[in-house]
Amino acid sequence: QGQEKLSCNPKKENGTHVVLCELGNPMKAGAQITVDMELSVSGLEDMGDAITFHLQLRSKNSPSPTNASVTVTVPVEAQAEMELRGNSLPDTTVLPTSWQRMEGSRRLEDRGIKVEHVYELHNKGPSTVSGVTLRLAVPHRLGGHILLYLLELGTEGGMNCTHHPDLNPAQV
């Protein structure tokens, strides 16, 4: 007739998570009910591409070996939206027209003006992510001449970084 909230209790039986819901007691003979359930399941990152629920209807009053049982398989799809933000410090750099690079110098200031590029990769969710690869291409040569002298590359937050072979070739 109307809508009622079910009383459900989660428990663990034989290493399996079980949710028991009381549908009504007593229930009249021939009664028909419809149950809509919404389940919130966490920790699905390692579950593969589907999760299976085993549903069974049991009666306390008349136990029967033919209790109605059904298996429902629901596909699992993780979704995460990534966002890349970047800044250059300073944001604009102009070399003086009279500036000349000092060949063979190991001093940083003889190589040019220091510009730091900072990139932040953000997971906007809703799922967690792992195994993300960010490939960053930096134009360091132009016409056989050094355009940008790549000095160092660093990361924060437990990420691994593969260094470019042209990183700090003069060891300044």
Please give a structural write-up:
With 172 residues, the protein is mainly beta. The chain folds into 2 domains: 7-75, no CATH class; 78-171, no CATH class. 0% of the residues lie in helices and 31% in strands. The chain is built from no helices and 8 strands. Strands 1-2 form a two-stranded antiparallel sheet. β1 and β2 (16-22) form a beta hairpin. The N and C termini lie far apart (81 Å). The model has no long low-confidence stretch (mean pLDDT 78). Keywords: Glycoprotein, Integrin, Membrane. It is a single-pass type I membrane protein. One of its GO terms (molecular function) is integrin binding.
**Shape category:** rod-shaped
Question: How far apart are the termini?
Answer: 81 Å
Q: Provide the low-confidence segments as ranges.
A: none
Order of helices and strands: EEEEEEEE
The gyration radius over C-alpha positions equals 31 Å
> What share of the residues lie within helices?
under 10%
Largest sheet: 2 strands, antiparallel
Pfam family, one: Integrin_A_Ig_2
Main location: membrane
GO molecular function: integrin binding
Keywords: Glycoprotein, Integrin, Membrane
